[in-house]
């Protein structure tokens, strides 16, 4: 059968001056066929549409009674032909077979096009410079990135300008208010201005539910951010992610670009999170910014001015240090130095860290915990009391936090196997030794003892990790008599 493409090629070659035989050979048809198709309508225009069936309809007997009712009930258009054919085979085992599924798929598709439910229509939008931006968090786990060989569970915050495609990407570990504020401010100050409207979904970091109506509105804190920068916050309807299509598509394009770049790099491992984000920034600039310089410059010129300063990117919580040398912050327990027991301190909750402040001075900084009801106990904060009361170790609520590394955990297990209940005392003393001097030196000593398989206790570890200083002999040096020196000079002159 001659195709439209062949005919177009034939006529093109003839217009170039080739004879019929050469043009027919180039188009892949016989000279006789070429003579027929030199002029006139294309094959597709002259083909008559077939309106009759070449074989009986295998579903004619059950279409109106069994299949069509299922299609009318399926308002979302989710029912698959494979499901229907399985049901028909189960009900009429000798009348239908799986090989008929293609025929059923065509008939179901035709019925939906002619009589099926209406589908939602999406409306393309014309953007203008400086008007609309969108932001969102997206999971980075599918990139399979590792940091120093360890799995790296993280999010990527993305802010995108709808007109120029300029974007800002930042690292995050949770969809918290602090991560949202840090990412948003980082984007606005990198961009150099503020768009008229910023679109976001109904994330709990920025919105909360209205009990009376069941709707959602901005939280007080995020409303203050909106007022500070002077933009309009636009939110999508719950469950309608397509309404934030600018950033949803941007997330897909970003992760596609990163996956391709990681394949070219040949490794998904990075030394530090900072090295990973430097890689991300390089890909963003090369893939999304380099060819759009003029559009980005035009967009920047249309932005509103930034305020005089950024907002603090932390939440301040006042809390009292309990007698367990701990504070409760955002549903989690953190240890602090025992000298702070009874004091009222300020905890500054950042996106990734928690800082403890007293009297305008930062005293501690620890990683922010994720999830619910977690705890972070630094053994250095409590060991000075625990070494005087080692019996408290066995039932200590946060005992697992007192194993700073796997080596210390193995040490306790070895002591337990060899010393029984005495292991608590010996281990607490070893932990005190690590806090008093060098944890690295103590750990290296423990690792060596464990590898050798020899029995040990606190005294043995201390002797190896902190050997006693060598005695230096005392030497008496007499005070020289300067008259001997004067006599020597006098005799020399003579």
The CATH level-2 architecture of the largest domain is identified as 2-Layer Sandwich
Q: Spans with pLDDT under 50 lasting ≥5 residues?
A: none
Largest sheet: 5 strands, mixed
CATH homology group of the largest domain: Ribonuclease H-like superfamily/Ribonuclease H
**Strand tally:** 17
The CATH class label of the largest domain is: Alpha Beta
How much of the sequence lies in strands comes to 15-25%
Q: Tell me the distance between the termini.
A: 132 Å
| Gyration radius over CA | 38 Å
Q: Overall 3D geometry?
A: elongated
- Number of domain units: 5
Tell me roughly what share of residues is in helical segments.
40-55%
Task: Provide a count of the helices.
Answer: 18
The whole-number mean of residue pLDDT values reads 90
- Give the spatial strand order of the biggest sheet: 5-4-1-6-9
CATH fold label of the largest domain: Nucleotidyltransferase, domain 5
Q: Could you say which structural class the secondary elements and strand pairing correspond to?
A: alpha/beta
What is the topology?
Blueprint (H helix, E strand, L loop, with lengths): L3 H12 L4 H8 L3 H6 L6 H4 L13 H14 L7 H11 L9 H15 L16 E8 L6 E2 L2 E2 L3 E7 L5 E6 L4 H15 L5 E4 L6 E3 L6 E3 L1 H10 L2 E4 L9 H21 L3 E2 L2 H17 L3 H9 L13 E6 L5 E4 L2 E4 L8 E6 L3 E6 L2 E7 L7 E2 L2 H8 L19 H14 L3 H14 L2 H14 L5 H8 L16 H12 L1
Parallel strand pairs: 1-6, 2-10, 6-9, 13-17
Antiparallel strand pairs: 1-4, 2-3, 4-5, 7-8, 11-14, 12-13, 14-15, 15-16
Helix pairs in contact: 1-2, 10-11, 13-15, 14-15, 14-16, 15-16, 16-17
